[in-house]
Amino acid sequence: MRVLCSLLLLCLSFAAHAQQPREEVVLGLSQNRVSITADFDGSEILIFGAIKRETAIPEQPLEVIVTIAGPSEPLIVRRKDKRFGIWVNTDANQIDSAPSYYAVATSGPFNDVLRHTEDLRHKVSIARAIRSVGAPAEIGDSRAFTRALIRIRQDNSLFQLLEGAVEVDQQTLFRTSIALPANLTEGPYKTRIFLTRGGHVISQFETEIDVYKVGLERFLYNLSRSQPLIYGLLSLAIAIAAGWGASAAFRMLRQG
Amino acid sequence: MMIYLPIAEVSVNLFLLLGLGALVGVLSGMFGVGGGFLITPLLFFVGIPPAVAVATSANQIVASSFSAMLAHLRRKTVDLRMGMVLLVGGLIGSAVGVMLFNHLKSMGQVELLVRLCYVVFLGVIGGLMLFESYRAIRRARRAGTPVYKRKQRNWVHALPFKMRFRTSGLYISSIPPVLVGMSVGLLAAIMGVGGGFIMVPAMIYILGMPTKVVIGTSLFQILFVTAFTTLLHATTNYTVDMALAVVLLVGGVIGAQLGTQIGLRMKAEQLRVLLAALVLVVCAKLGLDLLLQPSELYSVSTMDQL
């Protein structure tokens, strides 16, 4: 019985080995927490790691893809059109879900590193990270809205495609650095590492980077959402104190 | 040095904001205007979302009008009774304005509404001021003394619900002041302005109030209406950015004192021409943005924010 068991196990492990050589990611992050402080001006995250394997390195070269995705939320994309001589928002299309931030770094040209079918399955490219199911019937070109979203966010460095930004050493060590812009929303940022050979994903690893406002920023934001009336009164109190204080101070300066 | 604004969720250069506050402060000190009509569009230009710009500048005006009103109270140039009547209208107008604002926001048209209001009002006011000061300069050249005559009786006096306003020396119906207050409250909510530039002419020409109590009384009304508007925006839209307000205030109070000194050294007509030119420049910039094809036709907004 014991022999049978071990034989079975051996067979299973052979089967697994036959499908793909076991290679796993051991990851390091320069920081797994990004704090948005009052003087927050963007941040650079260094992602590095090694590949753990028990077998010899296969001949086909190893490629690495790193993605970081901010929290997703539904969006509305609006298009302007000329009406009565001025430019007015006319058509609107809802995007069911799009990450507030999305970066893809690869070790080579994207289409060489990942096959289309694998992209569909794992939703790696920027276009796949956005989910837009249906558009209202009156808008024929809902894709134009999705393209516009990508274009706008790319211009703001919120969406980044960094081809060749991952350095791979000896098929074992990899490193890349990804810039987070200043206008981040808070939340958990899902970080994924894919190892591919010949465009097929052979291993993947997931972790999270927490992006949160801290200190005064956190306090003000929370107060404005949980106690809006108190927040409003506090703003007024500050304004009145500043107005009154300034006039009193300058009167004293002039008299004294 | 960049500062991250917690509500606007954008990072802006601290000195740019301080400078903006100071610039508007200088202008308000020089010309005796609240500066709301300038600070809101300037905040658009530096990339603050329009909803945050409008709500925060309402808060800003509370500060500048409070210190100015104190000065007027000391000089007893505030008609409190008239102020209260204007205020009743103002609060109604402000509530309607915030409702309208929120409704249009859900339709994605709020930016258009705010910009259109600005173009129309700045254009009209700037044009009128330029015309007025041009006439004033010409009259001064002719060395004739200008004679303003207050209209003693007009349609305002034919309406019911008459009230006596002792400080202003008026016995008129309370309907026109309520209406004037309402329209100013509406503007405060939509444009994030105090509305002094509308209310002062309305008080002089429609209500026939004596000029010496006009400024103080309008400040009284502006103070409460903008405070109310700030609260409404803070509780319904969560768009008042305290960090932004504080930075603007610091710049503003320093600028205002500087502006007062500059204002004392210049002639009134020159000041008015300058202010009119400034108003028209801002108006032209906003107007061109509406008329010219934008470089990006699409815009992205989240469900709860502009």
Quick rundown:
Chain A is an alpha+beta fold. Chain A is built from seven helices and twelve strands. Classes of the chains: A alpha+beta (256), B mainly alpha (306).
Description:
The complex is a heterodimer of chains A (256) and B (306). Chain A is built from 7 helices and 12 strands. Chain A has helices at 2-19, 110-113, 116-122, 126-129, 142-155, 215-226, 228-255, and strands at 23-29, 33-36, 43-53, 62-69, 72-83, 86-99, 102-106, 159-162, 167-169, 173-180, 187-197, 200-213. In chain A, the strands form 3 sheets. Chain A has a 6-stranded mixed β-sheet with strand order 2-12-11-4-7-8. Chain A has a 4-stranded antiparallel β-sheet with strand order 1-3-10-9, with no helix packed on it. In chain A, strand 9 and strand 10 form a beta hairpin. In chain A, helix 6 crosses helix 7 (228-255). The longest helix of chain A is centred in the C-terminal third of the chain and has 28 residues, at 228-255. Chain A is extended, with a radius of gyration of 26 Å. Chain B has one domain (12-141, 163-290). Chain B contains 10 helices and 5 strands. Chain B has helices at residues 14-31, 36-45, 50-74, 80-107, 110-142, 175-191, 196-205, 211-236, 242-264, 268-291; strands at 2-5, 10-13, 162-165, 170-173, 298-302. In chain B, the strands form 2 sheets. A two-stranded antiparallel sheet of chain B has the order 1-2. A two-stranded antiparallel ribbon of chain B has the order 3-4. In chain B, 50% of the residues are buried. Classes of the chains: A alpha+beta (256), B mainly alpha (306). At the A-B interface, strand 5, strand 6, helix 5, helix 6 and helix 7 of A face strand 1, helix 3, helix 5, helix 8 and helix 9 of B. Strand 5 of chain A pairs antiparallel with strand 5 (298-302) of chain B, so a sheet runs across the interface.
